[in-house]
Design goal:
2 domains; alpha/beta; 6-stranded mixed beta sheet; D-Maltodextrin-Binding Protein, domain 2; 15 helices; globular
């Protein structure tokens, strides 16, 4: 399988459970929540099922009686004065939560800099409702959904970091597929009609001098449907997010990643700092203004936590399983190398995220909430 080199070396998670592709928002979303088709929900439950199926032959590793979390030797937070406030954090049951496991463990042991209260849910809609109601202070959500929420709340939220980069891949058994141009005349099975996977892929087609007229896009409602087609049809080509890529390849040894869409994005964006982004971390602006030290401390601890997940996949996998994010540690460990967990903030975040949102906006303004967010969307320390 194609080796990837990402920001944190052997990156650990983005798509694997990000599953925010292809499901529609709740029928009656709460006030402030997005009703745009691009505000996808997380398919975490089916994601976990996919990994469980793919790892049936994995050797079960018993969870240790006590987990010792090593210090990832990250930034010194001693200069940040903690505030007497509980920071309420919401994340999806997937990659974003996997990047938080070190911090969750530190908080559980009473060793985190802030007081934290964590909430994990299986759908982005649930997080949006809690943010809109003031029940969460910080949330880790799909990148375009953050822009939609910014517009829906008239700027009452800010993005503080990027927590996961791109997680989409083209999977096939055909070694002759070496570029986007090699898909000409073929059928590509995918999910996400009217959502970010479609917009990203159409952008990549355009960047390679192609359009939908040059191939056939066959949309399915769930990634598991695409995975089933790949299993049944030896010549099929699929566009999938992690962890469905890993699951599909595990079920059919002839399948492999033939095109990494993150790499294809960066080829087109050569010389630009734009990145293919999956998830961002947002904060309610009133909380940020009232508790700047608490937010600053969270940012440093989030950076430490993401670095830990990537640098120590053995221990991270045990924590992930213990928290119920993925059922078993061996499955979590198998998923981690194909995910893209990171923690980008400041100017690096703004350049990467604004470039990504610009591409989505050009494909469909509704995908980012009708207009691009203002400069105040991007938090600077």
């Amino acid at each position: 399988m194609k080796k990837r080199t990402y920001l944190f070396t052997a990156l650990a998670i983005a798509g694997v459970l990000s599953g925010c592709f292809g499901r529609q928002p709740a029928a009656n979303p709460p006030a402030g929540a997005s009703t745009e088709p691009a505000a996808e929900s997380s398919a975490a439950e089916s994601t976990v099922a996919a990994f469980t199926e793919a790892a049936k032959d994995s050797t079960d590793a018993p969870a240790p009686d006590a987990i010792t979390v090593p210090d990832p030797s990250a930034a010194d937070t001693s200069s940040i004065v903690p505030e007497n406030v509980t920071v309420r954090i919401g994340s999806l049951k997937g990659p974003t939560s996997m990047g938080l496991v070190w911090l969750m463990e530190q908080a559980k042991k009473g060793e985190a800099g802030n007081q934290y209260e964590f909430t994990m849910v299986t759908a982005a809609d649930e997080l949006l409702a809690k943010v809109a109601a003031g029940e969460l202070d910080i949330a880790l959500i799909p990148a375009n959904v953050a822009s939609v929420l910014y517009n829906k709340t008239q700027g009452k939220i800010a993005a503080v970091d990027i927590n996961t980069l791109g997680v989409l891949d083209i999977v096939a058994a055909d070694d002759s597929i070496q570029s986007i141009a090699d898909l000409k005349g073929r059928t590509v099975y995918m999910t996400g009609k009217g959502t970010t996977p479609e917009y990203v892929f159409r952008y990549l087609l355009s960047g390679n001098g192609m359009s939908e007229a040059d191939l056939t896009l066959e949309f399915k409602s769930e990634p598991t449907e695409v995975a089933a087609i790949l299993k049944e049809q030896p010549d099929a080509i699929g566009l999938l997010p992690q962890p469905f890529v890993t699951a599909a390849c595990a079920q059919n040894e002839s399948l492999k990643i033939v095109l990494d869409l993150t790499e294809e994005w960066e080829k087109i964006q050569s010389g630009s700092k734009s990145r293919l982004v999956t998830g961002v971390t947002i904060v309610r602006r009133p909380f940020l203004e009232e508790n700047p030290n608490a937010v600053a401390l969270f940012l440093e601890e989030h950076r430490q936590s993401a670095a830990f997940t990537v640098s120590d996949p053995d221990t991270a996998a045990e924590l992930i399983a213990a928290l119920g994010i993925i059922e078993k540690a061996p499955i979590a460990k198998k998923a981690l190398p194909y995910c893209n967990i990171t923690c980008l903030d400041g100017e690096e975040m703004k350049a990467a995220l604004s470039g990504y949102l610009q591409v989505l906006y050009e494909q469909d303004p509704a995908s980012v909430g009708g207009k691009l967010p203002g400069d105040d969307f991007y938090f600077h320390k």
